[in-house]
């Protein structure tokens, strides 16, 4: 599926709007719980693009940008330029701006530091740990001197967590018949910090294993997004008795602190302290399959669709 509106938009750009030529599309940020699509209109989301024309004073032709509300198409008219960030650092792969230098990176950094208030030596559990956000949370926690365990959905992903991302341990949740037993095996003294990405039965088991005054950053609950009837949580009383702090957050709350995030993450990338794994699908036509694959855990690392080589 290829669509190009370049000729039309090049002739008529409304004031304060820009047209971008897409390089990469981020497919890890959508679920039917918050993605509403108009019939016969492209889905919009996060992307990396080059400005081909602009009616906005802050953007000019040739600028590289990343941001949200960009259509899944080769050329996209952006009517909300305030949702875009200029790309100033090009010594790293452009695709990183859909991941480690974009929405997932900001999510991991502020979700862990701001919501979880970590301390050296604390015990950290990350679910969906090989994904776009989880792989970063684990590595950031290790830099803090924490003990980190992650869960993922295949042997390959578990090995990736331990061998490439430096997790202290990891397990395949699909091979565990009792999550409570599994967590007690990896956290015999309990969990100080849980970075929540899946919800459901895993969250229920985590609540049984949290330590006194533990913190839970509720980033996402991918196991629940496509259920007609979400699973109930049985162990919420632990939040009261153990004085657990469970807090949800949304990445847009931290966009105004993007420069602070870059000051931290760019040196980590350049010095090899943090690594990043991407699963890049080639061509816009591969988008639907890439999106569907997210919900079965088919991707290894950050799922990205490469729209063009130019």
From TrEMBL:
Record key words, sorted: Oxidoreductase
Keyword Oxidoreductase set for record: yes
InterPro entries: ADH-like_C, ADH_N_2, ER, GroES-like_sf, MDR_fam, NAD(P)-bd_dom_sf
GO molecular function terms listed in the Swiss-Prot or TrEMBL record: 2-alkenal reductase [NAD(P)H] activity
Keyword Transmembrane helix: no
The name this protein goes by in its record: PROSTAGLANDIN REDUCTASE
Organism in which the protein naturally occurs: Salix viminalis
Pfam families: ADH_N_2, ADH_zinc_N
Entry superkingdom: Eukaryota
